[in-house]
Amino acid sequence: MSVPEKTIKEMLRDGALLAAASVAADVKAITPLPEPTVTFADARKGTLDSSDVSGVLHNPIYAGFGPFPAITSDEEWIATAIKLMEEEGQVQFLVNMLAMLRETFSEVEGT
């Protein structure tokens, strides 16, 4: 009796898990993480402050993500992301981007 071959999807998943485990073993956890320095731009409040604008710049939904249509190109969003990483550092940028994604999708899901 032969063992069934893995599907391509299973092989990719297994490879991704191995790569992630390898990276995790090599990377020291960044703790504590800094607090987000951006806020979610809620159009319902009618005005935007500098933290709201920064939140927009950190949010990849504007390049087209999930149910959101693109209002900027991938190239423009990535160029902006690189500039923000240079200005505030990679960790702060990622903390801010993660905060914006969580807030965006909590609004979509109504939570």
Distance between the termini: 50 Å
What is the SS-derived class? mainly alpha
Low-confidence stretches: none
The fraction of residues assigned to DSSP E strands is: under 5%
Number of strands: 0
| Average pLDDT over all residues | 81
Notable traits:
111 residues, mainly alpha, single chain
Task: Walk me through what this model shows.
57% of the residues lie in helices and 0% in strands. By secondary structure, the protein is mainly alpha-helical. It has a domain of 67 residues. Helix 3 packs across helix 4. It is globular and about 55 Å long. The model has no long low-confidence stretch (mean pLDDT 81).
Task: Characterize this entry briefly.
By secondary structure, the protein is an all-alpha fold. The chain has helices at residues 8-26, 50-58, 74-88, 90-109. The protein has a domain at 43-109.
Topology:
Layout: H1 8-26, H2 50-58, H3 74-88, H4 90-109
Helix pairs in contact: 3-4
